[in-house]
Write the structure tokens for this entry.
Amino acid sequence: MQKEIKRTWHFKQSPKEVWEYLTKPELIEQWLMKNDFQPIVGHKFRFSFTSKPEGTYRDGVDCEVLEVKPFSKLSYSWNGGTKDGSRTFNSIVMWTLTPKGNETQLELQHNRFTVLEDLLTHSDGWNSCLKRFEEQINTIRNDNTKP
């Protein structure tokens, strides 16, 4: 079984601009979830959401910052579980930013999945969240190009 999610995007924004959307709580909330994130190794934080009544997962994910290399790498644990308590998952999210000329390549790796349903659900979730990420970050470019 595949045990990780890997995605790569390219943005016209600088690594610094992309980094802000990965590390500022108010910007993270726009595309991912409510949070109390701080880019400090060892900081424990929580992503919170209200799950649908028919949803599988409990309302939130507990995390801890594992690595911070400003404008290039960020990783944190991602620990959650099902509402009924039958299953937990303990995984790692890693973001890598690479300058490519005047653009930024952003890579997501989310690994250590042991159950296919968790992998598939998170894969779909990241697709939705990163679509919002792209929409939010592209407002920077649009705002900067207005006369």
The mean pLDDT is 92. The CA atoms of residues 31 and 128 lie 9 Å apart. The chain has one domain: 4-145. Residues 4-145 form a domain with the Alpha-D-Glucose-1,6-Bisphosphate; Chain A, domain 4 fold (CATH 3.30.530.20).
